[in-house]
Amino acid sequence: DVLFIPGPVEVRREILDAQGGWMIGHRSKAFADLYARLQPKLKEAFFVGDGYRVYIYTSSGSGIWESASRCCVRDDQPVLHLVNGAFSERWAGVSRENGKQVDVLEVPWGQAVKPEQLADALKQKHYDAVAVVYNETSTGVMNPLPQYAEIMRGYPDTLFLVDAVSCWLGAELD
Fold first, then answer.
1. pTM score, whole prediction
2. Which of helix, strand or coil describes residue 62?
């Protein structure tokens, strides 16, 4: 058997040593200074300009899904989940568990949702948000995010929620 996971990874000695130091409070000046120092590099990595802030989560990806579902989708509006594997299916479940109206555009695992399928779904119904896992690691499928984004530009009132956990900095994400 072979287990493919994103680790273990080598951690430099100075980082390991820093982890042995005292924690800083998240409301302290030391934290505010650290967070401010991180912003320029995070903005560069995420291709965002000065008018934006990058927020850091200390949860797993599932925690971010819950936050996105709770905070970015109104209770009285539906969310469309593009499902083509275990992680995209789980995110749709998280939205349901948080009381959201969930519609699913599902294709067989191992395939990508075609951009025209997304376009057709958006013509049929208004969605508060569309949620997609960019790289569905359970099947190895990289969804055609740039084509989805082009379609989403035609729906400025619909948020586009993208899980890019397994491909950030390894795939184009602009």
1. 0.83
2. helix
